[in-house]
Amino acid sequence: MKIAYRSFNLELKNTFTINHGSRDFQETLIVILSDGEFTGYGEAAATVYYGVTVDKMIASIRSVEPIISENIHRTPEELWELTFPHLKDNPFAQCALDIAMHDLHGKRNDLPLYKMWGLDISNVPLTNYTIGIDTVDKMVNKIREFPWPLYKIKLGTEDDIAIVKELRKHTDSVFRLDANAAWTVEQAIENSEALKELNVEFLEQPLKPGDVEGMQELFQKSKLPLIADESCIVESDVEKCAPYFHGVNIKLTKCAGITPGRRMIKNARSLGLKVMVGCMTESSVSMSAIGQLLPMLDYVDMDGGLLIRNDIAEGVKVYDGKVHFPDRNGTGAKLFKFE
């Protein structure tokens, strides 16, 4: 077994702002895992908001390298169970390792992951393209620069409805709105009524996580479907969200990888919830992993490769209004600099 770590600073095409803060670059970790014959690639982005750094992720994975070495020929699910007790406090690191192991496993079996799982990619959801908080003029310019049938609009200001009304003047595309937990229940109820008339598909995480009482009221009164994001981090959260949301947005980095992500999707389906998988502005290494899950999803936010100038990999790509799968096994990801 050989394992290597590479960090990259991904340059965003535009300053990306949500109500948590702004950034022009996104640091990300690539894990390169080899069994002597095949090599798998995994990824997780660093994030100040969750206290995750590249150095912390590398240190965490290095602490389980003996376990990885001894069990490199097991399935990804088996390795995940063996390493999780040691990595449970760093799910981003666990995610990078799990994606790399899934990529390796698919290559060993000479199949893309979606085929290993018996999935059909002939009809899959299209990703939205995210427009971060900015001046209205700049948000309009971003839409003009990237015409797309589906936008996720980041909100959380005092002028949210006015912003959406102005954006609506410049495109007929469907909007999804993500307040990143910035609204009160009163604002969310009122906003849902106005936004329903503006071709908005759903509201993502309007209230703060843990505001069960507020979500109970909003669930009863909202004019739009509600999708959990910050309220749905780990596997046990899916069942907690079911009474108050219409769907969940699962982030592989937050839940610790593809292995628990697939279980969360299955559980959400069993509870009658819509399912979305989202990204953290990573490269096409992570986007390719998400792409393997597409046939299982109602919605997807895998625009990481679209938002950055210096993508470091080939893989599952989105262009011309379609998802394009490479003729490669595993996740389909291929690093530009290391292959």
Any overview of this molecule?
The chain has 339 residues and is an alpha/beta fold. Helix content is 37%, strand content 24%. The chain has 14 helices and 15 strands. The strands form four sheets. An eight-stranded parallel sheet has the order 4-5-6-7-8-9-10-11. Strands 1-2-3 form a three-stranded antiparallel sheet, with helices on both faces. The radius of gyration is 19 Å and the shape is globular.
- Alpha plus pi helix count: 14
| CA distance, first residue to last residue | 18 Å
Class from secondary-structure proportions? alpha/beta
State mean pLDDT (0 to 100 scale): 96
Helicity range = 25-40%
What's the gyration radius in Å? Answer: 19 Å
Number of strands: 15
Broad shape: globular
Poorly predicted spans: none
Order of helices and strands: EEEHHHHHEHEHEHEHEHEHHEHEHEEEE
Major β-sheet annotation: 8 strands, parallel
Strand order of the largest sheet: 4-5-6-7-8-9-10-11
Residue share in β-strands? 15-25%
